[in-house]
Amino acid sequence: RGAAWYQGESNATHPGSYFAMMQAMLDCWRGLWGEGGFPFLFVQLPAIGNRSLWPEFREAQARCLSLPNTGMVVSIDEGHPTNVHPREKKGIGQRLAGLALARIYGRDIPAESPMLATMECSWENRQ
């Protein structure tokens, strides 16, 4: 009935092309399988150490929510500080399962990840 996707670590050094690649992949899959709008749920990669392009990549992943019938699980709190592939993924799996149950199977459960609504910068009290 859909796809659950947890990938992107090797694409994180090229955040500028990620959206176009995801859009092309989804269009291809949906066309090949004759399922034009099948649900595509994905994991926004967790935080990891000091990776300079990581925030931009996570933003590129969030932009994929503008593609039809997609959902994203935030996992910033589930990562490992030095390993791009954290061993413990149970929490992420539970979030994906909850999102699928709510979005695809119609369960009335809280499943949406928190999303930034607004941001304001002020330089007045900067130290």
Task: Characterize the structure shown.
By secondary structure, the protein is α/β, with parallel strands linked by helices. It has a single domain, classed as 3-Layer(aba) Sandwich (Rossmann fold), CATH 3.40.50.1110. Helix content is 33%, strand content 10%. It is built from three helices and three strands, in the order βαβαβα. It has a three-stranded parallel sheet with strand order 1-2-3, sandwiched between helices. α2 links the parallel β2 and β3. The chain is globular, with a radius of gyration of 16 Å.
Pick out its properties.
127 residues, three-stranded parallel sheet, 3 strands, globular
Supply the CATH architecture: 3-Layer(aba) Sandwich
Can you tell me the residue ranges where pLDDT is under 50 for at least 5 consecutive residues? none
Q: What is the radius of gyration computed over CA atoms, rounded to a whole number of angstroms?
A: 16 Å
The ordered H/E elements are EHEHEH
Strand order of the largest sheet: 1-2-3
**What is the average of the pLDDT values?**
88
**CATH topology type:** Rossmann fold
Largest sheet data: 3 strands, parallel
